[in-house]
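Many introductory courses stop at the sequence. We go one step further.
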Amino acid sequence: MQKKLIINLSKLAVPFTSRGRFKSEKKTILRNDFQRDRDRIIHSTAFRRLKHKTQVFVNTSGDHFRTRITHSLEVSQIARTLSKYFNLNEDLSETLSLAHDLGHPPFGHAGEEALNECMKKYGGFDHNIQTLRIVNILENRYYNFNGLNLTFETLDGLIKHNGPVNNLTKFNMILGNNFFKNKIKFDHNASLEAQIASISDDIAYNSHDLEDGLKSNLFTLNDLKYIPVLNKIISKHKNRFKKYSIDLIIRQIIRDIINDMVSDVIKMTTKNIKSNNIKTLKDVYNSNKQIVCFSNKMQNFDLKIKSFLKQKMYFHKSVNTKTNYGRKIIKDLFLIIKKKPNKYINIKKYKNSNIERIICDYIAGMTDRYAINLYKKIK
């Protein structure tokens, strides 16, 4: 167990009453502003589609591997744990965690690379900015506004969960100039809740990609022993190999990895707040350092896991064969649809977008299986 907090981090939390939305709405006694944001995300079409979008393995590869939606739920669980421990705005961290991958196209990062190539002459494609298009423009569920009309704090967290944004060129090309009407301070640091969502993303995909890789036999526990911290964790379970199934042992090891990483974040965040004299929310925004982070030792561990997964999993032949097929599907669909866009898309419902961006939005919104089935049908 961690020691009791010395600093009252509730003073650093984003207030539960938002500073506003682009379209003013009446308050409700049932939910605070960020619970409403969270519920809008959960009920969105884009969120449901994450069920059939690739995390690492193409969605048709197996029923037990992570998809974008299970990954988002796991990020949310870790973020809520950290936010609650620190007495921060748990609802905001949860909202950001659930929404952070809404903009991913089918076939994971291979799909993103393919769409970015297709859109090279038209502003490019970026899944983080696509998330902002979805929540501000593309979701259509309300009479009085396009998108989900999320709070400024949620939009701020989605924009800056990976840190301040100093170059707005791609934002302007994909969303339009001054889209956020000076409501977002791009060069300021993100809230602690957004920083927590970001590091929870790292913890979730590292640990769970390891589990999926082990269960798919792309590598073994023995391969992981060459990573020092992992070797120490695995060694703790060596006396249980004869008594328990390998599946159960893997699950316990993954639990230990998550626990160690979360504990490290708690320790470092508390240390950073004290050493940087962070006393108010304004101090958080004005800080030029990431406050929620790993220690140097854990950061090195994190990088070694990423390097291992890249070599043994992400670039594995069996994974690449399917993701390369996905890359081809997206490129071919873009060219086919561009020839006769009205045949596939209701162009009239899109406003202030060129035809290439409309096609990009359409393809980015597809699930893996929808893209595969459409490709087979029209190629």
